[in-house]
Write a structure and sequence with these properties.
Layout lengths: L33 H8 L4 H5 L2 E4 L17 E6 L3 H10 L5 E7 L3 H11 L4 E3 L2 H5 L6 E4 L6 H10 L3 E5 L8 H12 L3 E4 L6 H11 L6 E9 L22 H5 L9 H5 L10 H18 L6 E7 L12 E7 L5 E7 L7 E8 L2 E6 L2 E6 L15 H14 L12 E6 L6 H15 L7 H20 L3 E4 L4 E2 L1
Parallel strand pairs: 1-15, 2-3, 2-5, 3-4, 5-6, 6-7, 8-11
Antiparallel strand pairs: 8-12, 9-10, 9-16, 10-11, 12-13, 13-14, 14-15, 16-17
């Protein structure tokens, strides 16, 4: 699973070493039913007890031709060329038949760097509306600060462009219906950028859960810990930061009009006027993955706590947050983000069921299955010796297959992605396939709104210091 680089479309680029897949991928076929899973993975043998069975997830041939004709090439424009925007673009350009023709950003230094990186012929501007007016732009990648997502995406769709919009889809709840309606009325493709919904690992987890691999789901636990300055959005400010190199007025947009601040321009995630805190940056990924795997449309109730524990640098959003959510399907979701964690950065989701645990961590999905007992327990140790003998004899006759003593055996299965697998590539490949074929994307505006809307309940509960309720079908605060 690739780590998400914090979006910095109005901050300095954050370089990271990434290895991307060369082709779109697919998971193993869906397990047919619970019975077939139990036959293949639930039978406990000496081999299964000795260690996990390893299964390699295999990539399938690419769906788009590497020799796409010139008439079928997709001409892409980037709006918001920070760390996330430039990383996204580098991945998007690996998909056959995609070329970058224009970039917009409010910092001149990023525009200059994009020309260094992708050629002097690249059209660059501080005003993204100039890009939308161009006839040589087919699709727009929106990687701006959160408070610009809605307007940039809606403007692009109304200009006849297909849109890939970074998460979280919304900054305010009112953004969601407007973006959904713009996609519907214009007929343009709109994909939200939570790449886990295109991940072969998450698809495998979805299939395993549906096949009954862990029985009845009752809890999902997810976490994302970041013990680093960059992880906590403490991005570097360039030496030439000023009102001459930075279009401060355009950056502010609908945010409160305040004097120029290089910190807020380049480290915008620290302020709720432009970003959405840990909920919008990280919780939304965990929600997207949970909703994709479980098929749920979202929670009905949320409660959150947290605070500013360490990064007391002027930011007005928490650096630690914990939240609980109730789902109508009968399970709970427990989320945690911690920028003060003493260990290495790590992320993971654990699905706990009545008969086992499914975990996504690193580049693998692991299922540990512990069969439920088939008889009641036997606790007779405090009775008389004669009573104990009689009851043990009766128990053995009634429940001959029950193991009365010792821990139950555990079956382990591990499904690993290929080395260097990158779900971001698959997510862009899915987007460009939809652009070419005019077929539905894997993460449309409705899915994106439900994920972001659920995630931002955390901020609402934290600010109100109370439980908040959400209607996941109507996508409204109750």
């Amino acid at each position: 699973m690739s780590k998400q680089i914090p979006s910095t479309p109005s901050g300095v680029s954050v370089d990271a070493q990434r290895t991307t897949a060369a082709t779109p991928t697919a998971v193993e076929p869906l397990l047919q039913d619970r019975r077939s899973f139990l036959r293949t993975a639930g039978v406990l043998t000496a081999a299964s007890l000795a260690g996990p069975r390893l299964h390699a997830l295999v990539a399938q041939p690419q769906s788009e031709s590497a020799t796409t004709s010139a008439n079928d090439r997709i001409r892409l424009a980037l709006v918001g060329a920070g760390g996330q925007g430039q990383y996204d673009t580098s991945v998007a350009l690996q998909v056959p038949g995609v070329e970058l023709v224009a970039v917009a950003d409010c910092y001149q230094g990023r525009l200059d760097h994009c020309r260094e990186r992708w050629g002097n012929a690249l059209f660059t501007t501080r005003d993204y509306r100039e890009i939308l007016a161009r006839s040589d732009v087919d699709a727009v990648l929106v990687a701006t600060p959160d408070h610009w997502h809605k307007q940039a995406a809606v403007d692009a769709m109304r200009a006849g462009k297909d849109v890939y919009c970074e998460k979280p889809m919304i900054h305010l709840y009112s953004d969601g219906p407007e973006m959904i309606e713009a996609a519907r009325s214009t007929g343009r493709i709109l994909q939200i950028g939570s790449q886990r919904v295109s991940s072969m690992l998450y698809a495998k987890a979805r299939d395993l859960l549906a096949a009954g691999a862990i029985g009845q789901l009752n809890m999902v636990t997810a976490h994302w810990d970041r013990n680093s300055a960059i992880g906590a959005w403490d991005y570097t400010i360039p030496l030439d930061a000023s009102t001459e190199t930075c279009d401060w007025t355009r950056f502010l947009g609908t945010a409160p009009q305040i004097p120029f601040s290089a910190e807020q321009f380049f480290q915008w995630r620290k302020w709720k006027a432009y970003g959405s805190g840990v909920a919008g940056d990280l919780f939304v990924h965990l929600f997207s993955g949970t909703h994709f795997i479980t098929g749920s449309k979202g929670p009905t109730r949320a409660m959150a706590t947290g605070g500013l524990r360490f990064w007391k640098d002027g930011r007005n959003v928490p650096d630690v947050m914990l939240a609980l959510f109730d789902y109508p399907e009968g399970f709970n979701l427990n989320l945690r983000v911690n920028f003060v964690d003493g260990g290495q950065e790590n992320e993971g989701l654990t699905f706990t069921g009545s008969e086992g645990i499914l975990e996504i961590a690193g580049n693998a999905v692991t299922v540990s299955r512990t069969p439920r007992e088939t008889a009641p327990g036997l606790t007779v140790g405090t009775f008389t010796e004669a009573m104990q003998r009689t009851m043990r004899k009766q128990y053995a006759m009634r429940h001959p297959a029950q193991h009365p003593v010792g821990p139950p055996p555990v079956a382990l299965d591990r499904y690993a992605a290929p080395n260097g697998y990158n779900d971001s590539y698959d997510h862009f490949a899915n987007f460009f396939h939809a652009v070419r074929t005019r077929t539905p994307v894997v993460e449309d505006a409705v899915f994106g709104f439900r994920a972001a809307g659920a995630a931002l309940l955390s901020n609402l509960s934290y600010e109100r210091d109370s439980i908040v309720h959400w209607d996941p079908i109507a996508m409204k605060i109750v």
